[in-house]
Amino acid sequence: MCQLLGMNCNTPTDICFSFTGFQQRGGGTDIHADGWGIAFFEGKGVRLFLDPQPSVRSSIAELVRNYPIRSLNVIAHIRKATQGIVTLENTHPFMRELWGKYWVFAHNGNLPEFLPTLDGCYIPVGNTDSELIFCWLLQSLRQRFGDAPPSRDVLFSALHELTYPLSGTGIFNYLLSNSDCLFAHSSTELSYLTRRAPFNMAHLKDEDVTVDFSRVATQNDRVSIIATQPLTDNEPWLAMQPGTLWMFHEGEAVDSLVTLPSPVSSLQGI
Predict the structure, then answer these.
(1) Which of 1, 112, 183, 235 yields a CA-CA distance of 20 to 30 A from 190?
(2) Residue 175's beta-bridge partner residues?
(3) Quick one: pLDDT band at residue 83, thresholds 50, 70, 90?
(4) Is 70 exceeded by the pLDDT of residue 88?
């Protein structure tokens, strides 16, 4: 199973600490050795780093690990190939433009029976089901809303409607961002953590590294980290219920909806 990592903040923040542990899962502490990638939103632009080599042996990953790029939204992926050969074009995250903004998508899972009809607006470059899903999602949003981008809440509702019929057809964990917020769908396994004042020490699970966030964060900072599996062993990670879609904005979870048949239509207590 691939590994996902996302970050959503209320002030531009670097992801060096989390990425230090995440990098080890690409051939070090785990078996995912079929490439990796990371995307940083910066204003209207995106810094996208991709490498089909295992992240634990990647010189590009070492650069990212030691380069404090500050961003409000970050999406990273470590690949364990299920569909598509190990090549650069099949390496996540994927990026496309919609409504004058870059969108970034990374997927963990396998939907072998999902074969949508594409109208030519978005076409996969590689041969993964993940890139196909991304193209279909953006095509569906463009068909639904035309040239007028919807509000954040309306967009979240539309993504829920598009995700719902696919949620029970295979493993469909994904992270998606348009630079304004970050959407996370838990099909089988995702967890998240929100750091806010008062800040404490954090220790990585995959490498013996500790950071005292009280020394590097301000009282107003708020950061949510989303990962396939918790990255630290001394913080209160929340396991996302399988079959739920979440929206993160300005460093916290602001809404969630159920994407599997259930009498409950919305989670409470966020």
Answers:
(1) 112
(2) 106, 184
(3) low
(4) yes
